[in-house]
Design brief:
single chain
Length: 128
């Protein structure tokens, strides 16, 4: 794939994750419902505001910065994050079983990993 297309896809992926993270920060109960989660009291809301934006804004920010600067090493953080997330979903399928909604987030994470890995490779070759 062309380097510019990879930059655009990686940047869009980054923006998507930042928007999701901001949603958890500003409207945690609403954002959590989209992920089949509910907050338990004020501490639950605080956890949703802290942990989910940390993952999504962190992942998205590094992806966006990596795309902007065409910097391969910056993409390691979002690659690791998405790989861990997808691995957790696979383990959950194995332990907890299948539900019809299981595959949509897995597909998004897998596509994200593919885009980030391709960008990593492209940017690393450019830097060599």
């Amino acid at each position: 794939m062309a380097p510019m297309a990879l930059r655009i896809l990686t940047g869009l992926l980054g923006l998507l994750f930042i928007v999701i993270g901001i949603g958890f920060f500003t409207r945690p109960a609403h954002a959590a419902a989209n992920f089949s989660l509910t907050a338990v009291g004020i501490q639950g809301l605080a956890t949703l505001r802290a942990d989910f934006p940390a993952f999504f804004i962190g992942t998205g920010g590094f992806a966006l910065y990596g795309a902007w600067q065409q910097c391969a090493r910056v993409l390691v953080f979002p690659l690791v994050g998405l790989t861990i997330a997808l691995s957790g979903r696979v383990v959950s399928l194995a332990i907890d079983g299948y539900v019809p909604t299981a595959f949509t987030p897995m597909i998004v994470e897998a596509i994200g990993i593919i885009v980030l890995a391709a960008s990593y490779r492209s940017f690393a070759l450019r830097q060599s």
